[in-house]
Design goal:
Rieske Iron-sulfur Protein; 6-stranded antiparallel β-sheet; metal ion binding; dioxygenase
């Protein structure tokens, strides 16, 4: 569990980036439509921070090439992104926001 901060520190319509550490990628946390969402921060199309994207409802638009991702599933809804980003569970306990990151993906070694 990664503490993010108090819920009032992330106003509706805003996002922030947290460093997960321990081999995890950075995570973008969003507050939209009364709910909190967390996805991997890096766009699956190219190296851009989704926490710096444009938030509309349950979707975030990548600031680099306008790929659109569903915050609930991590699925891209348009090109150029084709691969989803991972989603992470978010909980609120006593006014504190926590992200539960998924286990980091195992890196496959290139076979020569």
């Amino acid at each position: 569990m990664i503490p993010v901060g108090r819920i009032e520190d992330l106003p509706e319509g805003e996002s922030l980036r947290i460093e997960a550490g321990d081999g995890h990628a950075a995570i973008a946390v969003f507050h939209s439509e009364g709910a909190f969402y967390a996805i991997d921060d890096t766009c699956s199309h190219q190296d851009a921070s989704l926490s710096e994207g444009w938030l509309e409802g349950c979707y975030v638009e990548c600031p680099l090439h306008a790929a659109l991702f569903d915050l609930r599933s991590g699925m891209p809804t348009c090109l150029p992104a084709r691969k989803p980003v991972r989603t992470h569970a978010v909980t609120v306990v006593d006014g504190m926001l926590y992200v539960h990151p998924l286990v980091p993906a195992v890196q496959e070694e290139a076979v020569a």
